[in-house]
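Hi C.,

You asked whether I'd gotten around to modeling the 123-residue construct. I have! Everything is below, sequence then structure, no commentary in between.
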Amino acid sequence: VDAGAAGAAPLPALRAVYRAHIDFIVEHPGVPRLILAELQRQGDGEGRLRVAAMLAGYRQRLLALLAQVPAAASIDHDSAATLFLGMVQGLVISALVARDIGRIRAQADALYRVYERALGVSP
């Protein structure tokens, strides 16, 4: 199932994208480690360019969903997309530091509720 598929209502789609990202990280904990390692390399190697392209595409998808959220019309969508990505990245870094990838799921829902409030959506 494509999280955030075209035609889906924007809020459930945004939530589905977030949940899919969280679930992927928990099920494949080595991926964030590989990405972080790749980003530490010098220069613009193929891996870094792929990560940049992937994040740019992800950001565009988020921006498209955010543009459809009526309550979010008055907020800066670029900042909201950055915050969305930062939530996931923050959960990953915290889990890696704690050496407990499972804590991501424990914190993800509460964090997303804060995000929805920031968008002006009452869950």
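If it helps when you're writing up: The radius of gyration is 15 Å.

Thanks,
B.
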